[in-house]
């Protein structure tokens, strides 16, 4: 770093600054110290110059004091580096005091011959103090970096297993990604119309939301506790029902683990939470009555359980008493399950109805039109309608949070609730700005951005609804993201010189329907694979990979995920086609052990899949020029991917059925003698490989070529 101020020979204190962040942090400090030392070369100075030097010295000392205070606070929270950090802070404070003393006006005296003042301070002392200050400040910065890096690494390792932290981080990341464009247009609007109060409110709201998201990221990385979040999660009805049933079932093991009063108190606290459903103005009379009836039934069953439980405690655990207690436990759990099912149906049903009603986005369209016309009265009218819609969505998200059975889904519901709560007023303020300045292009663009964020959140709510249903019905609600982007140079050479294009909002909206179909197909693949008994089958592995790649392409249609440009999408389409061809190869091997009729069906579907993979591969490699042609290529790529995944979904249940059939036939026909005889032939091993996708003979060792082929395949992805 020869050009760095830190490498000035006057300040050579043996420092070795290895990071640019530390270097950049030290530059302002070095600049001020350089000013002080250079002035020491001129012993005579005017009062004005001396005052300036004094001010700089005092500023350095104050800044060092603040810096040291932060360092000492860090030291108190990290015992392993407390001594080192404390010593570095002490040296920095002492050096700052020395510089302040050397630049003090009291240390200067007037010269006898003129009006100038002579500073009799030793230049060597200033250099020594500067060296000590730079050395100690650098040490504090390096130690602080070590602590932060350790926290990040520790948090990252834990996040790999903590689904709750993953969900919180994903929510914060979604806010930051979506707020980026909002901040750009809101800031432009505020600059274009600096006297507009609604524009300022709009911009400030974006800043506030981004600040909250960053604070959440910091909480996760530094493992700080968020009392508000813990309070929210613990209050969900689903958690309460789970805890209550666990408490009831624990009576089988220990009759004296709790008191009847604590059990009834737990039930009443749970019933009280159902008031979010029964007190809602949007809950129908029939639904309200059903919930209240089930709550009363649960109370009755719990009272009967308490009566039986107390009787067993008093009379002893006879066979009859134990059986009666078991019946009471089952009955109470059953009634609680009925209550949970009814609450789930109410929340999910209302969310589905809202999405259907608000799918046309009538208030947003009306707001845009009224704002463009400069009609403030119409904007106020439609703002009230949007506010009512926002309140419905916020309340519905709160109910969905109650029936979400996993913490990640609860966090996602809370994120959706906060998003609707915040974006609604932002849309209104953006519409007011446009109404005040109807000819402003940037104000119109700003309103469009916020309306698109609202529509995107409605789409997210539809996916959230499906995942909540999946978990409730016993299917997995999580999704394994496909994060491996193909590297440049691994695929078509014609794409190397292609220009990456980002789709605008209108094009992304038109892609939304196709993308959603791709998302549903990837979920269908997951659902079919869960029915398979062979977890290590090649067909399973390759189908899972296809589903993950398709999901990443779906995220692209929403402007999210790791695929940022059309070039990334086309690369990913090539990976999808290559993985599809690998699946075709496995299917051909599988078909060799089938009878003629079964073989013909599988091969027919396989030929269709091969053709679709080749079509997708050729389309992805075809170069295009211009935005319109690129958009058409994106459309055809996603359609071809959808067709490919449709064939995969139809093939999986067929293959699973045939594998189970052949397994049952081999089981019924085989005998110990047959098994011993087959150990000397290779045909059964080939059959097992063909049908199961792996070698069940535990004594076979893979060749080096096979391992290298697997490694190359992974690298290509």
Automatic annotation (TrEMBL):
Its main location: cytoplasm. This is Catenin (cadherin-associated protein), alpha-like 1. It comes from the Eukaryota. InterPro entries: Alpha-catenin/vinculin-like_sf, Alpha_catenin, CTNNAL1, Vinculin/catenin. Coiled coil: none annotated. One of its GO terms (molecular function) is cadherin binding. GO terms for biological process: cell adhesion; Rho protein signal transduction. Residues 674-689 have a biased composition (Basic and acidic residues). One of its GO terms (cellular component) is cytoplasm. It holds the Pfam family Vinculin. Residues 663-692 are annotated as: Disordered. Signal peptide: none annotated.
């Amino acid at each position: 770093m020869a050009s760095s101020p830190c490498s000035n020979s006057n300040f050579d204190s043996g420092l070795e600054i290895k990071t640019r962040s530390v270097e950049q942090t030290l530059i302002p400090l070095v600049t001020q110290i350089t000013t002080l030392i250079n002035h020491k070369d001129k012993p005579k100075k005017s009062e004005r110059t001396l005052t300036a030097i004094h001010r700089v010295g005092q500023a350095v000392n104050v800044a060092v004091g603040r810096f040291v205070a932060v360092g000492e606070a860090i030291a108190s929270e990290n015992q392993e580096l407390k001594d080192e950090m404390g010593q570095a802070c002490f040296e920095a404070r002492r050096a700052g005091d020395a510089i302040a003393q050397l630049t003090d006006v009291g240390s200067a005296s007037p010269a006898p011959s003129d009006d100038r003042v002579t500073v009799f301070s030793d230049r060597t002392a200033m250099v020594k103090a500067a060296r000590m200050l730079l050395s100690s400040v650098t040490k504090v910065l390096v130690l602080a970096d070590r602590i932060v890096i350790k926290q990040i690494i520790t948090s990252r390792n834990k996040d790999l297993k903590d689904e709750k932290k993953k969900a919180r981080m994903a929510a914060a990341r979604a806010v930051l990604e979506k707020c980026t464009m909002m901040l750009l247009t809101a800031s432009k609007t505020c600059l274009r119309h600096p006297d507009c109060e609604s524009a300022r409110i709009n911009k400030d709201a974006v800043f506030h939301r981004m600040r909250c998201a960053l604070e959440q990221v910091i909480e996760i990385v530094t493992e700080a506790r968020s009392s508000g979040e813990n309070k929210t999660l613990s209050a969900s009805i689903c958690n309460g029902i789970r805890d209550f049933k666990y408490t009831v079932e624990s009576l089988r093991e220990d009759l004296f683990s709790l008191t009847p009063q604590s059990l009834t108190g737990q039930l009443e606290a749970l019933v009280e939470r159902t008031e979010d459903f029964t007190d809602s103005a949007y809950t129908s009379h029939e639904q309200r009555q059903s919930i209240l009836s089930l709550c009363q039934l649960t109370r009755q069953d719990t009272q009967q359980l308490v009566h039986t439980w107390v009787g067993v405690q008093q009379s002893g655990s006879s066979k009859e008493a134990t059986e009666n207690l078991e019946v009471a436990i089952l009955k109470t759990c059953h009634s609680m399950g009925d209550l949970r099912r009814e609450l789930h149906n109410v929340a999910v049903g209302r969310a589905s109805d809202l999405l259907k009603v608000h799918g046309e986005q009538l208030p947003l369209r009306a707001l845009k039109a009224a704002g463009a016309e400069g009609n403030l009265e119409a904007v106020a009218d439609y703002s009230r309608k949007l506010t009512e819609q926002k309140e419905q969505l916020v309340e519905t998200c709160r109910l969905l949070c109650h029936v979400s059975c996993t913490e990640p889904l609860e966090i996602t519901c809370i994120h959706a609730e906060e998003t609707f709560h915040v974006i609604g007023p932002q849309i209104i303020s953006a519409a007011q700005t446009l109404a005040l300045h109807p000819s402003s292009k940037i104000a119109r663009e700003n309103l469009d951005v916020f309306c698109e964020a609202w529509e995107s959140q409605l789409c997210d709510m539809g996916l959230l609804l499906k995942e909540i249903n999946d978990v409730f019905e016993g299917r997995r609600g999580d999704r394994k993201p496909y994060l491996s982007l193909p590297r440049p140079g691994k695929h078509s050479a014609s794409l190397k010189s292609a220009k990456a294009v980002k789709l605008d909002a209108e094009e992304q909206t038109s892609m939304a329907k196709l993308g959603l179909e791709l998302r549903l197909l990837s979920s269908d693949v997951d659902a079919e694979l869960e029915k398979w008994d062979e977890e290590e089958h090649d067909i399973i592995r390759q189908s899972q990979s296809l589903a993950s790649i398709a999901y990443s392409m779906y995220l692209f249609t929403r402007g999210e995920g790791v695929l940022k440009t059309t070039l990334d999408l086309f690369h990913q389409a090539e990976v999808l086609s290559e993985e599809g061809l690998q699946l075709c190869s496995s299917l051909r091997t599988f078909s060799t052990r089938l009878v003629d009729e079964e073989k013909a069906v599988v091969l027919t579907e396989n030929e269709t899949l091969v053709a679709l993979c080749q079509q997708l591969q050729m389309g992805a490699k075809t170069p295009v020029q211009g935005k319109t042609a690129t958009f058409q290529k994106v459309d055809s790529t996603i359609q071809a991917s959808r067709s490919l995944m449709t064939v995969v979904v139809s093939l999986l249940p067929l293959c699973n059925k045939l594998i189970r059939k052949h397994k049952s036939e081999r089981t019924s026909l085989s005998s110990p003698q047959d098994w011993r005889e087959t150990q000397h032939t290779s045909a059964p091993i080939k059959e097992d490989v063909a049908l199961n996708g792996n070698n069940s003979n535990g004594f076979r060792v893979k060749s080096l070529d096979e391992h290298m082929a697997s490694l190359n395949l992974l690298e290509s992805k």
